[in-house]
Design goal:
The structure is a single chain. The chain is of the alpha/beta class. The protein contains 10 helices and 17 strands. The protein has one domain: Ribokinase (UDP-N-acetylmuramoyl-L-alanine:D-glutamate ligase, 3-Layer(aba) Sandwich). β15 and β16 form a beta hairpin. It is globular. The chain starts with a strand and ends with a strand.
Length: 320
């Protein structure tokens, strides 16, 4: 198994769950949170406290797959931060590189979940995960990872560059799942991609980075910057290339969706967890899809994460 560093955010997710008050209403092409009257008190059905954030979500996938996993990120000195650290400890993840910020609260997301559709609206206070410039790339010397999985650092391109250059010089392979703030920095992002081994984006993100409208155009253009590229399209599946093989595939299984939180994290980290365990590019794509499918059937971003020893059934995937 591999030694994998997960670099990214750590949040406490507070779920407010209801069967009717969060049903969306459509105004033109925009769906809005629907049945709440301003100034009213709303009774909800259930509340649940979970741990979220792209960095911790991916770390749990790697650890459950059997990899030696390290999480690097920021939390506050508060009960929410302690809950995050406790969960990571329980999953066997190395938390010794977490920075505890004394002047910031741990980030919190309030998830308004509609049980009828599985759709959610998220209100986020980033807190300790708002900035990452305090983190030091010199930690890579002692961590010495085989792979570094990086989710959004809130557009902190300087910190990304420091970590990417250091990891690249060490021979550590980098998988990057940028967020909207990184994609806004298009010129700097394209410069970073020379250091990235695996890029994961969705279709709309890909179209902001390079020219093209159809998946084949987008992946060809992104492939000029990064050897391995995966472009997801939600329920329509994804396209992926490693420079040698290109696959178009649908969803792993049509399942009742309970909560879509963490679906992207579970696909990307599931793919890398399987690949780092020595599996083929194609099989790793299938496992990433299965991991994402499992996650959306459970509440929260971690309950459905697979362990890597499950028997997977065939899925629609075609080499192109």
């Amino acid at each position: 198994m591999a030694r994998i560093l997960s670099l990214g955010s750590a949040l406490q997710d507070i779920y407010l769950i209801d069967h009717d008050d969060f049903v969306s209403t459509k105004e033109g092409e925009v769906e809005k949170l629907g049945q709440i009257v301003v100034g009213s008190k709303v009774d909800i059905d259930k509340i649940s406290f979970e741990v979220g954030g792209g960095g911790t979500n991916s770390a749990v996938t790697f650890a459950r797959h059997g990899h030696e996993t390290i999480f690097l990120g920021n939390i506050g000195n508060d009960p929410a931060g302690q809950a995050i650290e406790d969960l990571l400890d329980d999953e066997g993840i190395d938390t010794s590189y977490i920075t505890h910020l004394t002047k910031q609260k741990t980030g919190v997301s309030v998830v308004l979940l509609d049980t009828k559709s599985g759709e959610r609206t998220i209100l986020t206070y980033r807190g300790a995960s708002a900035k990452f410039n305090n983190l030091s790339e010199d930690d890579l010397d002692t961590i010495n990872p085989d792979y570094m999985y990086v989710s959004s650092l809130r557009g902190d391109m300087d910190t990304l560059l420091r970590f990417f250059e250091k990891a690249h010089d060490m021979g550590c392979k980098i998988m990057f799942n940028p967020g909207k703030l990184e994609i806004k920095e298009k010129k700097k992002l394209l410069g970073l991609l020379d250091l990235v081994d695996i890029l994961l984006v969705n279709k709309s993100e890909a179209a902001e980075i390079v020219p093209g409208k159809i998946l084949e155009e987008l992946i060809a253009h992104l492939g000029a910057y990064c050897k391995t590229v995966i472009i997801t399209t939600g329920s329509m599946g994804a396209i992926a290339t490693d420079g040698k093989e290109t696959y178009r595939f649908g969803i792993y299984e049509d399942v009742p969706v309970k909560d879509t939180t963490g679906a992207g994290d579970s696909f990307g980290s599931g793919f890398l967890a399987h690949l780092a365990a020595g599996n083929s590019f194609k099989d790793s794509l299938i496992f990433g899809s299965a991991n994402s499918t499992s996650v959306v059937t459970k509440l929260g971003a971690k309950a459905g994460i697979l362990y890597g020893d499950e028997d997977l059934h065939p899925m629609p995937i075609q080499k192109i």
